[in-house]
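Contributing: when you submit paired examples, paste them exactly as shown. First protein:
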Amino acid sequence: MTAEQLVLVGGLWLDAAAWDEVVADLTKQGRDVVAVRLPVHAGATLADQAAAVLAAVDAAPGRSVVVGHSAASTLAWLAADARPDRVAKVAMIGGWPRAGGQTYGDFFAIKDGEMPFPGWAEFEADAADLDAAARAAFTAAAVAVPEHVATGVVTYTDERRYDVPVVLICPEFTPEQAREWLAAGDLPELTPVKNLDTVDIDSGHWPMLTSPAELAGLIAAL
C-alpha cells in the first residue's frame, strides 16, 4: 500500500523554506512530502490559503497526513473538514485549531494591510532555543501575513472532521498541559475528536528550525 503523502503547512510569518531541513530528512527516508507555499500577496485571503493546502491534498494519488504548525493548525483542520475522506490524519505542532466563527490569527497589530512579525519581545518564552543568529535569520525571512488572512473568519461545514485522527506535537508546552487544556474545554474544536494523541518534542515553538531531524522523525512516524 502506498504511504500517505505528508503535507507541511507553516504558521504565521513562515514560508515553505522553513521546512527545508525537515523535507530533506523525510525525502531521504523515501517519504512523499510537500511543503505548501501559501499565498501571501496583497489581498490574499484565508480561503486562498486553505485552497492552497487543499490543492496539495487533492494532487496526491492517495490520502495525506496534513501537518500544521502553530496558527496553521487551523489550516490543517480546515483541510480535514473539506476532505475528511482524503485526509488520513492531522498533526498540529505547537497549536490547535480556532473554533468556528473566530478569526484565523489577528493576534498582533495590522499595518497597511498586513500583520508583520512583531519582534521577539512577544515570544521570549517560546524562543529560548533560538540563538541570536537564528533569530536574525528568522526576522529577515519573515513574511508579513495579509490582513484578510489574519482576520479571516474560520468556518467549518462537515462534522466528519472529528473522525480524522489528530496528533498534537507539543514543543514549548507538555503533553500533560495539552491534556489539561482539553479536559478544561479550552480547545473546543478538539474536544469531539474521536482519536487524539499527544507527542512531546524538546524544543521551542519552531522545531522545524531548531530540531528538524527529531521533528522529521516524529512526522515520519505518523
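Second protein:
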Amino acid sequence: MASTSLFILFILQACACLFFYTIGAQANITFSAIFSFVDSILDTGMNNNLLSGRCNYPPYGRDFPGKVATGRFCNGKNPTDLIAEALGIKDTVPAYLKPDLQSKDLLTGLQYFKDYIAKLTGVAGEEKAKAIIANSLVLMSGGYNDIGVSYIGGARKLQYTFPAYCAQLVTWSTTFLEQLYALGARRLGVLSTVALGCEPSGRVAGSCSITANVGAQTYNNLLKAGIASLQSKHSDAKLVFFDIFAPLDNIASNPQQFGFQNANLGCCGGVGSCLPFTTLVCPNASTYVFWDSLHPTEKTYRIVVSDVLNKTLSSFP
C-alpha cells in the first residue's frame, strides 16, 4: 500500500502546478493569489518534464495562443487558464517549470509549496507572506488520473476494491489538504473528478457509461464528505467542493443543447490516443465536446468553468 507521503510526492512532482497572481475583486470576492495543485485536467505544462504522459507536441495546442503545444491536454486553454481569465488574472498561466520563466515571475509559483513560502517570505516579509497565503484561492484536483489511469488502466485494481481505493484517495487528499492548512492556506477549492463514463474512451453504444459514472460519483461523494469533515474542524478556513462532474455530464449527454455536434469521439484520436503530429484531427474543435479520448475541448471547459465559478465563488468569505 502506498503511503500518504508517496501520494503527496506524486502530486507535487508529477502533476502539480503552483501559480501566484495578484487579482482584483470578482463579484465582491478578492483573492490575493491562486495556487493550483493539479492533474491532467488543469496541468499547463508540468508534464513536459515527465518521461511519459506528455502532450507537448502537435496537434495539442492547435487553438492555443501562438498555436503551440505547451503541455496542456487540450486544443487550447484549459480550466487553469480559464479560471485565471475569469478572475481577471491573465489570459494564460505558465507552468512553473517552463524553461523561459523569468526571475520577475518568482511570485507566480514554485514547484514545492514550502519552498514557495520560504522565498515569498524573503521577498515580501513574514507577515505579508502569511496574509498572501491565507487570502489565496488554493485549487486541488487529483482524482481524475488516480481513477482513470492508476485504477481503471493500471494495477491499483489488483490491490484494492474500487470503493476501498476511492476511500484511500480521499484519505490521501484530505491529509494533503490538512498539510496545506498547516502551511497557512485558508480558502481551498477541491475539484471533483469528471464524468468518466462520458469520455469517448468510456462511452457505451454512443451514450455515457452509467457504470463508469456511478464509479466516479462514488469517489465524488466520499470526497465531498471528507471536505465537509475538514470544514467542521477548521472554522477559520473555507473548503469548497467544486463539482465539475455535473456540468460535463450534462454537456456530454445533451451536446446539441450546448452547440456541439459530436460527443462520441475526440476531435483528435477518436476513441484512442491523440498521437504526435497526426493529421487525423477534426477541422473545428468547437463542434466537439472532447479534444482527445479523455479530455474536453476549450469550448467545453469554458462552459464547465463558468458553471463552477457561478456556483462557488460566493462561498468564499
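If you have annotations for the second protein, write them as plain sentences, like these:
The radius of gyration is 19 Å.
The chain has one domain: 4-315.
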